[in-house]
Task: structure prediction
Amino acid sequence: MPTYHIEMMEGRTIEQKKKLVAEITRVTVEVLGGSPDSVDILITDVKRENWATGGVLWTEPRS
Amino acid sequence: MPTYHIEMMEGRTIEQKKKLVAEITRVTVEVLGGSPDSVDILITDVKRENWATGGVLWTEPRS
Amino acid sequence: MPTYHIEMMEGRTIEQKKKLVAEITRVTVEVLGGSPDSVDILITDVKRENWATGGVLWTEPRS
Amino acid sequence: MPTYHIEMMEGRTIEQKKKLVAEITRVTVEVLGGSPDSVDILITDVKRENWATGGVLWTEPRS
Amino acid sequence: MPTYHIEMMEGRTIEQKKKLVAEITRVTVEVLGGSPDSVDILITDVKRENWATGGVLWTEPRS
Amino acid sequence: MPTYHIEMMEGRTIEQKKKLVAEITRVTVEVLGGSPDSVDILITDVKRENWATGGVLWTEPRS
Result:
């Protein structure tokens, strides 16, 4: 029943997402028990103009 | 003041969303009291490539 | 598969929560189709000191 | 380390986002201490058809 | 109508929260326009055992 | 920079959380690249009275 939300910068391939959700599910079941079917994972692809660190959007050059 | 976030697979029509938010708001006021105007609902349309159950993305065929 | 997150001010009874999740699930299946078992609902009880509207926490007297 | 999620109606310019994240980060450091680099901000641009108040989507005329 | 969620390590005082929500609301209205009453802010106090960076919980000593 | 939110039923031990965040971070770096320090994970322990599936809270007996 664990539910994951993953926010990551846009641009990952479907192959990366496939592998990531398989691995996350595997380690979750290993550590917490339960069945793989009880693990839900939702990914959000975040645009660079919508993520800021240190007060600066990731569309900007960083010093 | 209750605030809802609804994540659902993309592809619902505007008519379905209209009806869903009206009904959710109605039952919320019925059960919790308060005014309809205090109920906010935000919907996220999730792409199949961004939702996994059992370690498999919903773009994949399921056995 | 729709997943709901409901944030509401703390203080609701279990009876209210029971009724609310039953009703939300019922209207969701009515409007979107699918089976009730595919509907997950997570509630967050928010403390008054952790919610602000108009720049003022809900622990404060409101004019 | 504070992490912000801001949901707002779509349509803001990059200039507004730039200014907003700079200001949010500045006031956060002023009030909570810590370094600007520890502040992350994620923005979600919400479509009008995905936000409802009072049981009515923001695509609808409001009385 | 912007809605903020702020996650921060537990331990901030009510005074800090009061000041933070007032300032966040002020800069939001300055940059985006609209009325202060349309700004909602929800704070989550996160326990150190529930936040990890670099694969290590914040309850652990950091090298 | 990926940021994880994990919602799970309350009752996991600190040892389980330690192991889970270490493993999640490891597989994330393996699949997406980047440094472990860029991975943040926030856990929410959800009470049984705050999670419903099929319209029924997890405090209730299930048929």
Observations:
- The mean pLDDT of chain F is 96.
